[in-house]
Specification:
The structure is a single chain. The chain is rod-shaped. It is mainly α. The chain is about 80% helix and about 0% strand. Helix 1 packs antiparallel against helix 2.
Length: about 140
């Protein structure tokens, strides 16, 4: 009778361990599936952020080019009307516009790089790395 009791206890323990293993495997699969789903969402958000940065940078550069062109037209007209005294303000304004262009580009790059890096920090270590944003500098 004691042997039957011992065999019954062993069978119960083995069944309990098997049940725990099955539950653990199912739980780990669910966690893995959710992890992969969140990783895909994060990759999409990162790609969208990179596209947005590209569009924003192009928009800022285009606006600055238009402003610089208008400034050149205005200074050319002023040069035609006045003597060389218009050259100093033109150079000062052009230098300020170039500095403003560089400053805006650097600030936009710094802010977006910080956001992109924060998103990369929470990305899955198993996922393939996405292309890094390249820092672009404005040439005046």
């Amino acid at each position: 009778m004691a042997a039957h009791l011992l065999i019954g206890i062993l069978i119960g323990v083995v069944c309990g361990i098997a049940a725990l293993l099955v539950i653990s495997i199912v739980t780990l699969r669910r966690i893995d599936r959710e992890w992969r789903t969140q990783n895909v969402r994060l990759q999409r958000a990162l790609a969208e952020l990179q596209r947005f940065v590209g569009r924003s940078e192009r928009g800022v550069r285009d606006d600055l080019k238009v402003a610089r062109h208008e400034l050149e037209l205005a200074t050319r007209d002023a040069r035609d009307e006045a003597s060389s005294s218009a050259g100093a303000p033109r150079d000062e304004i052009a230098g300020g516009l170039c500095g403003l262009s560089d400053s805006l580009t650097q600030r936009l790059t710094m802010l977006t790089d910080a956001a992109v890096n924060a998103l990369r920090d929470i990305r899955s270590p198993r996922s393939p790395s996405s292309p890094r944003l390249r820092s672009r500098s404005s040439a005046c």
